[in-house]
Amino acid sequence: MMRPPGEPFRTGDKVEVSIDKEGFRGSWYEARVARFMPNLALYTIDYETIVVDTQDCRPLRETVPASNVRPRPPYLGAAWGERYAIHQLVDAYHNEGWWTGAVSEVRGEQYSVFFPSTGETIAFRPSEVRAHLDWVNDRWVVPDPKRMTKTEFREGRLVEVSSDEEGFCGAWFTATIIQLIGKKKFLVEYKDLKTDDETEFLKERVDSLHIRPTPPAIPVPEKFNLLEEIDAFHNDGWWEGVISKVLGGSKYIVYFRHFNEELEFGHEDLRLHYDWIDGRWLRRTSQALLGW
């Protein structure tokens, strides 16, 4: 039975789960819901393809944020044609999960898929590849290739940069592009991060997967709501979090799921959280975050 839009997943529902750990970002794993904890916005799930360890073949059970859980996408086959096209975004089944990449070559009954996150190209059978869809605002969205290539990252442009290094998951740092390096790499200078000796602003090479425009200048609401997704300015960057408690005096307790930590912030250090998806800014509502 299909889950009605806006309602939480039920026990036994088939879902996919993302894992916020180094080496797993960008992948989704098939699982079933074991329990929903609405007050904490958490699901306990049993993976269908990941086991406890090599000696124990029971399905691994984990408790994960509701924002890391989505329905399983509809099967579209090659979508809009009998075969996947060169450069088409797809998900490929690899290492027990679905990883996003782009078709780089079609040879006979095999697709070569390039994974930007690792730089690898791997061959897959048709049964191991599916059309890529994004789960946005409680519905499946087909990526628009034209929109994805519209954004122009040029020298002098103000951007935000993320990092896969341990301890930086969920953070974006403001920077300026100072040099283009080929088609997919940039030399940036950070606005707030400095070198170890504090003498100048840090410069770093980044790839296109870790760079985005600065979010739109949307007015901050007079008051943030409980469980609202926000970004908090902390340690020279904007960190993704959730309002876990509304205090008096325009103060809030923010929960950072990447570190399982809570900190207090003033209203002036918070902004609405937006995701940069397929060349446009999208905002997840608290209902979408919780599955309501």
Automatic annotation (TrEMBL):
Q: Which CDD domains match?
A: Tudor_Agenet_AtDUF_rpt1_3 (cd20405), Tudor_Agenet_AtDUF_rpt2_4 (cd20406)
- Residues in Agenet domain copies: 7-77, 82-137, 151-219, 222-278
Gene3D superfamilies in the record, alphabetically?
2.30.30.140
- What protein am I looking at? Agenet domain-containing protein
Lineage runs: Eukaryota, Viridiplantae, Streptophyta, Embryophyta, Tracheophyta
